[in-house]
Amino acid sequence: MKSRMRHFFGPDGRAFVLAMDHAALMPSPALKDPGHVAREAAAGGVDAFLATFGIVKAFSKDFGRAGIILRGDGGASALKKPMGCLEALYRAEDALRLGADAMLVMGYPGSENNEHTLGYLARLAADCDRWGLPLGAEMLPYGFEKPLGITPWSVENVAFAARQGVELGADFIKTAFVGGERFREVADHCPAPVLVLGGSDNQGLEALLHGVKEALGFGARGVIMGRNIYRHENIARVCAAVAAVVHGDADVKEALKLAGGVQ
User: Fold this and answer.
1) Region 2-259: CATH code
2) Nearest-CA neighbor of 208 among 179, 182, 192, 231?
3) pTM of the full predicted structure?
């Protein structure tokens, strides 16, 4: 399992993963040419791709030497209102047959689908462990629900959700970067590496790089982001800038130079 983790975590223990799984749930015009996005991102230095079964099957040749993390759940659709509940779709054996290095599924503690998502997370963790395949859990307290009187993604809730994912068997965690310096509480409470998601998809590159730099400074071990990367025309340069921050500890000004004027 550790050897598979090393395919997307660098020698510094950090990872930069490009998420390409959005079109499985909602229209994603910027992903109309997955092969182009993958080739550009690979050239820019991403460590791995998070992608769906169909995209891995059709475009893995475009991933270059980067690792592959298979999205293990899905089945919901933006055409249904509300979108509906995700389902576990694939097993460890399916991922290995595609040449994937890991799998990743959602976990929504506190949400309407609490027991469902956490249940299939735990079952898949056991399945992956049997095959020596790492499993990531995207742990988002309350999912995307907005219950009245509650701050769903508070530091306390995110810290608990991340820890709960590890307790259920996840080998790495994807979650929101919250709380600034208090994010250390999330990272310190979680025995597995924590990777942060990309956040708002309309922020400029400088703001994005500042966010990555801040998250790493407060304990994150890398990032898993998508739309903030592939919405740009020059994906390779944007990836090079993010990779410089993640793996080179570059400051934001240095990283922006690598982006060559991309805003």
Assistant:
1) 3.20.20.70
2) 231
3) 0.96
